[in-house]
Write a structure and sequence with these properties.
Layout lengths: L5 E6 L9 H8 L5 H9 L3 E3 L2 E3 L11 E6 L16 E4 L3 E6 L16 H9 L13 E2 L8 E7 L2 H13 L7 E9 L6 E5 L2 E3 L7 E3 L9 E11 L5 E10 L6 H8 L23 H10 L4 E9 L6 E5 L4 H13 L1 E3 L9
Parallel strand pairs: 8-15
Antiparallel strand pairs: 1-4, 2-3, 2-4, 5-6, 6-8, 7-8, 9-14, 9-15, 10-13, 11-12, 13-14, 13-17, 15-16
Length: about 350
């Protein structure tokens, strides 16, 4: 039996006079995103005194009434796949997952299955809301396939909307914090600082990003603090353990910024391939551990945000995965280590 439509009747207030219809409806139906309301309007699911309304930008007047018919969510697409997940937190509105390296977040060409979304659909089942009209988890940020660590995913429309706002602000309002740890080649010029360089899709390879001054480049800032620096037998810096915080959230931002600074993430097959020969400067144990890692040494170690429904501050920490720790331990055992600078937030 098909579930019935959810019928909502909205009356426009004096304060909403002159607003766009989609924005005015959003102030009354908080659990639906503006994009979802725009889609419903274009689908002819909103009626007013003048009949069916199909223009989201229609300016509303006080006292007008609109009837919104919200259809039940469609079955999940993609399909559920039962995969073990490391869950740091879960409630009725969201779930925080410690994603392993090698797992793609969302289905895409070449990765139709085996993704985090497939696993979440199986794990959450009917507890997922109909975000965007389809019953699936709400992805508000991503981690690269071979980057491990913490990821928050919305289970309800309200959470999706609230988390999206926090990630759009990139922590400028104090609600969101994201901390990464990476092993990089060499030693950065200063113990702490910021890499401020705009990023755009590469003109030479559309699958890669690059620092660019092109008109379509987007503002990007990464803050860093060097925790440890490792030297070879001659005392020359060969690698560093670095803590990073994002002020913006561009695709591949950390990897691109560090490569642009001539200190790419160790093991990065895309942005650090020119540094493969640097592995010869490592001790045998470190060389072997890096070869076994087989990916970029980048881990999303800390995540903090304001719960979009309860308003409670939530903070999570993820320990380094075993393959990352093996490289770090090998570096500590086979090279000289410089002392870490005093701990301090990079923002």
């Amino acid at each position: 039996m098909t579930a019935p439509e959810d019928i909502r009747t909205i009356e426009i207030t004096e304060a909403e006079a002159g607003q766009r219809l989609d924005r005015a409806l959003g102030s009354h139906i908080a659990e639906l995103s503006r994009a979802r309301l725009q889609a419903l309007i274009k689908q002819g699911r909103v009626r007013g005194a003048r009949g069916t309304i199909e223009e989201p930008g229609l300016r509303v007047k006080p006292g007008e009434r609109y009837v919104v018919a919200v259809p039940p969510p469609e079955p999940a697409t993609p399909q559920a796949e039962y995969t073990s997940l490391a869950i740091a937190h879960e409630d009725g509105d969201l779930i925080v997952v410690d994603k392993p390296a090698g797992m793609v977040v969302h289905p895409a060409p070449g990765h139709a299955g085996g993704t985090l979304v497939n696993a979440l659909i199986a794990h959450c089942g009917e507890s997922l809301s109909g975000i965007g009209g389809v019953r699936r988890p709400g992805i508000v940020h991503r981690l690269d396939k071979d980057t491990s660590g913490l990821l928050v995913v919305a289970k309800s429309d309200v959470a999706h909307r609230g988390l999206s706002e926090q990630f759009a602000a990139h922590g400028s309002d104090g609600r969101l914090s994201r901390r990464y740890v990476a092993l990089v080649w060499g030693a950065l010029d200063r113990p702490r600082g910021a890499i401020d360089a705009p990023i755009a899709r590469s003109r030479h390879n559309r699958t890669r990003m690059a620092v660019s001054r092109a008109s379509d480049a987007r503002h990007a800032v990464t803050h860093y603090a060097v925790l440890e620096t490792f030297r070879d037998e001659k005392g020359v810096p060969v690698a560093s353990l670095v803590e990073l915080e994002l002020e913006t959230g561009r695709t591949h931002q950390i990897r691109v910024h560090l490569a642009h600074s001539d200190h790419p993430v160790m093991g990065d097959p895309v942005y650090g391939s020119s540094f493969k020969s640097s592995a010869r400067r490592l001790g045998e144990t470190a060389q072997a551990a890096l070869a076994r890692l087989g990916r970029q040494a980048l881990h999303a170690a800390g995540l903090g945000f304001e719960h979009p429904v309860t308003g409670k501050r939530l903070n999570f920490e993820s320990p380094l995965p075993a393959d990352f720790s093996a490289v770090l331990d090998a570096l500590r055992g086979s090279t000289a280590k410089m002392p870490a600078p005093p701990k301090k937030r990079t923002k």
